[in-house]
Amino acid sequence: MQVHEKTPHINVTISGEGAAHVAEAIRSVYPDAEILDDSGEALPWRGSDLEAEIHAERTPGLMVKAYREQAGLSVTELADRVGTRYPNICAIERDRRKIGYRMARKLADALGTQYQRLLD
Fold first, then answer.
1. What is the DSSP string of 15-40?
2. Is the CB of residue 54 less than 8 Å from the CB of residue 47?
3. Are 8 and 48 members of one domain?
4. How many structural domains are present in the chain?
5. DSSP H or E segment with residue 10
6. CA gap 78, 64 in Å, rounded
7. pLDDT for 4
8. Where in the sequence is the domain holding 111, given as residue range(s)?
9. In this predicted structure, what is the pLDDT of residue 37?
10. Claim to verify: residue 69 and residue 110 sit in the same structural domain
11. Mean pLDDT in each 10-residue stretch from start to end of the chain (120 residues)?
12. What spatial distance separates the first Cα and last Cα of the chain, rounded to whole Å?
């Protein structure tokens, strides 16, 4: 799979098991990026099966885990930053505990993102 962003001109080749998730992350930063399959043909993004699959798999817990790993934090470090215990963060990441508005704000501040991204 290749991703092309028109301005500035960026070419990225993504392969492997997590390629769809990386492409989705790129899409969130560059919404007009053109995604090409392995044959070089452009794939429509909006309304595609791939978009639906990624959004269906994207749970609040997975988003917290992804942002935590991107920040290079352990579960314990994140728990300390938001003022809770690490089992609570583990339960959130496994979608066994819902994220309330206050916790979403604390997590977002600690992870350097917007709280809405954790709740979508």
1. -STTHHHHHHHHHHH-TTPEEE-TTS
2. no
3. yes
4. 2
5. strand 10-13
6. 10
7. 47
8. 60-119
9. 62
10. yes
11. 51 72 76 67 62 72 87 94 96 92 95 87
12. 26
